[in-house]
Amino acid sequence: MPNATLSVAFAGPLITVQDAGRPGNMRFGVSASGPMDRLAFDAANAALGNAAGQSAIEVSLGGVILQCREGDVTVAITGGDFVVAHDGSETRSWTVLTLGKGERLAVRAGRAGSWAYIAFAGTLEATEWLGSRATHSTSGFGGGAVHTGQSLIVSDATTREDRLGDIEPPDFLATGPIRVVTGPQDQHFADDTVAQLLSSTFKITDAYDRMGMRLNGPSLQLNGALSIPSEPIVRGSVQVSGDGVPTVLLADHQTTGGYPKIATVISSDIGRLVQSRAGDTVHFAAISSQQAITEARAFAGRTADYLTHIAVPRGTLEQRLMRENLIHGCIYD
């Protein structure tokens, strides 16, 4: 199969190559990285019929413009509500289209969401590190950041007419407050601090990147313990620094930390949290550890069903027209 060559006409900050991540390395001080919104990333690959976890480009609010120099390749764009401009027409994210030689694809911030994904019907060539092409943004290890002027190669590029069109977005995401399990160091906070976390409104600040999301709101008072012995950290940990400011740790979080953690965002709510933007408000609600486990299992089942559903080819235009049975009768003269 031929390759497709794309040039990066423009790339904003935090545009990176991501795959499913490199789990199992935290004991060596290496975070898993991978996509900020795992469901949107998985949906992009599923909509193309790709293998799960195949490398894609993660697009921040800064946006990206790609120019196809050689070959043709079908791409899927998911995540947030971004503007997608292609070959003189404009649509939204959650779509599959074919990028032909000489055509330009622009993905930029739209009405909502902070992260979008561009997956390719082919293999996006990128550097591997510890068996993964996921980019760790602070070190640059992995596939790396995408920069203006760079060339991207998609090997074994194909066009998939039977998959073109809109992608059905997931309709099973929770609404309302972001759910957390309180602790594990809530004993290091003043008696009413956990209740304050759950009853207060926090605003997402500009200090928001792949490592974490700093929140602005009431100060969460410690009971004198400004730090603790460093302990492992997971994605979703709500860590509180000595000034009482909470930070939700995300895909490129450090693997250990010495600030007390007042709560942990459950895995099924992290995707919708990271799609918030600076200036948006956040509320938290507590659930038990057992409830979090039950929800994680249910969410995994709903996700699997959804990805299976959108992975079914629509058929070519001719096949779709035949399925519609547009002729319902005939008239004889």
Quick description:
The chain has helices at 38-48, 193-199, 267-274, 289-310, 317-324, and strands spanning 4-11, 16-18, 56-59, 64-70, 73-78, 81-86, 89-92, 95-99, 104-112, 116-120, 123-124, 151-155, 165-166, 178-182, 202-208, 212-216, 231-232, 237-240, 246-249, 256-257, 261-265, 281-282, 284-286. It is of the alpha+beta class.
Structure description:
Helices cover 17% and strands 32% of the residues. By secondary structure, it is of the alpha+beta class. The protein folds into 2 domains: 173 residues, no CATH class; 110 residues, Cyclophilin. The strands form 4 sheets. The chain has an 8-stranded mixed sheet with strand order 22-15-16-19-18-21-14-23. A hairpin with a 3-residue loop joins strand 15 and strand 16. Helix 1 runs parallel beside helix 4. The longest helix is centred in the C-terminal third of the chain and has 22 residues. The radius of gyration is 22 Å and the shape is elongated. The termini are far apart. 40% of the residues are buried.
Q: Approximately what portion of the residues adopt beta-strand conformation?
A: 25-35%
- Order the strands across the largest sheet as they lie in space: 22-15-16-19-18-21-14-23
Cα end-to-end separation: 52 Å
Number of helices: 5
Task: Give the ordered list of helices and strands.
Answer: EEHEEEEEEEEEEEEHEEEEEEEHEEHH
| Unreliable stretches | none
Q: How many domain modules?
A: 2
Tell me the helix content: 10-25%
Instruction: Output the radius of gyration.
Output: 22 Å
Structural class of the secondary structure composition? alpha+beta
If you average the pLDDT, what whole number results? 93
- Main sheet specs: 8 strands, mixed
Tertiary shape: elongated
By DSSP, the count of extended strands is 23
